[in-house]
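LOG
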Amino acid sequence: MTRNTRSKPFSEINVTPFVDVMLVLLIIFMVTAPLLTVGVQVDLPETNADTLQSDNEPLEVTIDASGNIFIQETEIGISELVPKMKAITENRLDTKIYVRGDEAIDYGQIMMVLGELSGSGFTKVALITKPLSK
């Protein structure tokens, strides 16, 4: 009995380096993903109201503790609010708009923004709060 001792070339792919790279990428994405959702920092007031269910992505108007107004994450003045909102929504006045106001600011500033939006014809404007801690 003679054995075939001729060596054949090894033709399998070594996947260990590939798995190492994929694990490193996974860790990088897991660390950076929470950072992508950070917007303008505000402390929302608490309430026991029910959560709103949304089908499409609403626009967010934020008022920070200093009284600065932001659309999404872009700072604007109160006089620019309505023209920019109409331009962004392409005059669709039924677009959902969520207003987030820091709990430290005067209620009058929030009402001024809500009044500007409602007075210009936007019909779906809501005030965002955080759930009441139990």
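LOG (cont.) second protein
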Amino acid sequence: MLKNINESTNTLEEYGYACGRIRDLEKYLLNKEIIHKMIESQDLEKSLRVLAENNLSEYSFEKLDSSSIDQVLVNISKRNLNLISEISPYPYLFQLFSWKHDFHNIKVLLKAKMLGKKELFPLYDLGNLSLNGLHAAVFEGKYQLIPIKIKRFIKQAEEGYLKYDSLQLMEVSIDKGYYETIFEQLEDINQDFLFYYYKTEVDLLNLIITCRCKIREIHKSKLAEILIKYGQLSTQKLIDIYDNPLHSWSNNFQKSDYFMVIEQGIKHWIEKNSLLKFEQMIDNYLLNLLKIGKYTTFGLECVIGYYYAKENDLKNIRIIINGKKNSLSDIMIKKYIRDTYV
């Protein structure tokens, strides 16, 4: 992680105020001790109470039904985004982070349309685009309410679903649109660390996409149109190893920073028939990359690091909540919890 500090790092003095604010807010991120106390609590109510007992007052849950809990977490995510807008000297980070919510909403709406269920999953009003505009575009064909490129992404995703009859591959098509949007904006922003972070994210996503395609026995000839460009890792390398036995794939990445992620992720799939460990290791790899933010006082790295650290906290809380609601053992919940930023 520290190898990513170079002569262009820690010199953006316009981020001095933002980094000062972040240093104070980092004290309110979840640490491993709090996470473990939540997991080891007897039930959901006591688990959530741990947050209040550690002076994390923003996590105030008056009701314990799923809708109420989700609304609290969504509101925290919204405040996290608004904080980025408030403390950043430029608006681009807020816009950049907001796109993820737009493309989440597109996935939800398209899934609902394909399955004939309009209220399939909740939509989150945290993006750059109007929820009403997206809804009207997907269900009524009113594409004039959304940007032309978003219309193209929706059309491509629908065509992909009809072609492969796969919701997972439809989601991948939407992800391709997301990263096209992100990297278009990154060209304008021109910040090395942002490029590096999102390229790494694409690499790791392509690795697990390739794994899923192999498991689903999708033909190698289809892989080129499924994989996402923009990463550092050559998609041709993934295509070249595709027909090899899954257990041997990691041998081709022994000198890569991704070796442990691939080796352990695939091993867990072979042993447990689950990619959850792979997903966990990807999240942990990216979080570790972001920890550069803890060592910068004049750079956007600290802002990016804090934003995703907070989102990681929310993900961990959701994992614990789901585990408690489904009566999973403490050991099982701990298996899938993500690392912490602090």
